[in-house]
Amino acid sequence: VSSDKHQKALTILNNERFLIIIGEPGIGKTSLARMIVYELLGNDYQLVVIEDIKDAESLWQPDTKQIFYFDDFLGSNYLELASSKNSDSNLINFIKRVKDDPTKRLILTSRTTILNQAVDKLAKLQDPLVDIARHEVKVQDYSKFDKALILYNHLYFNELPEEYYEKITENKNYLKIITHKNFNPRIIEFITDPLRLRSVELDEYLEFIFKNLEQPQLIWEHPYEHQVDDYSRFLLTTLFSLDKPKEN
Q: Which one of 9, 64, 179, 217 is least enclosed by Cβ atoms within 10 Å?
C-alpha cells in the first residue's frame, strides 16, 4: 500500500540522499524501504544490500547510480559507534560521503526504541546529519483507508478460501479489524496466512483474529518456542526480567 508516507520518505531521500526509516516491529519499515528501492531500480540505480558499512565502502563504484540498503543498521555498528577510540565512525563518514555524491542513495532502517537509546548514549549519532533524514513510520499515521487496503491486499493475494473471506465481510468485521487499537501490518499478515489457517477451523476464525489483535504478543510465541535455541530463550528471558537501570 503506497500511502502519503511513501512519497514523503522518497522526497527526503532525494533531497538528503539518505533516509533513516524507524518504527516499531511489524509496522512496515522493510516494506516501505523495499517500495522505495523498487522505484529507484526503475530509474537505473543498482541495489547494494549491505550488512556492514565496511562492505559498502568496498562495493562503492564511482560515477555509478547506486542505492545502498542497510536493514537494522545498528545491529552490527553499535559497538563501533560506542567505542571511545573512534572520534569519528565509519557509519557517519559513509553517510557524509553519500550526501556528497549525487549518484548515491542510502536507506537505513531501525526500531524506534533502539535508535532513540543509541542517540541518547552515543554522541556520534547526535550529528545533525543523522537527524535531518529521520523518517518514522507510526501506525497512527496510517489512515483508515490505508489500513483497509493493507487488509484487502493480504486477503486478495493470499487467496484465502471463500468461506474464510466471508467471515471477515459478514457483519462488517473488517471494520472492527481496521479500527482496532492494536492494528499492525504484521498481525494482518499473521491472521491471513493460508498456511497458518490450515490449523484454524472456520468457526474459530473470528476468535483467532480478535485474540491476536487483543494479544499481539501471541504472534511471537511460535518463533520464541520453535525458531530460537535454548540459549537464546534464556538470554531473552533474562533481559526482560531486568529492571531499567536507575539514573545516577
A: 217
Buried b (16+ CB within 10 A) or exposed e, 49-86: ebebbeebeeebeeeebbbbbbbebbebbbebbeeeee
Return d(Cα 14, Cα 104) in angstroms, integer. 10
- Sheet strands (E) in 93-247: 104-111, 134-137
Cα separation, 208 vs 202, whole angstroms: 10
As a whole number of angstroms, the distance between CA 26 and CA 186 comes to 5
C-alpha cell at 184: 499492525
**Contacting residues for 84 by C-beta, under 8 A, at least 6 apart:** none
Cell of 35: 517500495
The Cα–Cα gap between 118 and 82 comes to 9
Cell of 79: 559497538
Phi, psi of 218 (to 5 degrees): -65, -25
The pTM for the full model equals: 0.73
For residue range 98-141, what is the model confidence (pLDDT) as tens digits? 999 999 999 988 877 767 777 766 666 677 777 766 777 676 67
Other Cβ atoms within 10 Å of 175 Cβ, number: 12
Per-residue pLDDT averaged across 195-206, rounded? Answer: 90
Residue 80 and residue 89 in contact, taking contact as beta carbons nearer than 8 Å: yes
Residue 150's identity, in one-letter code, is I
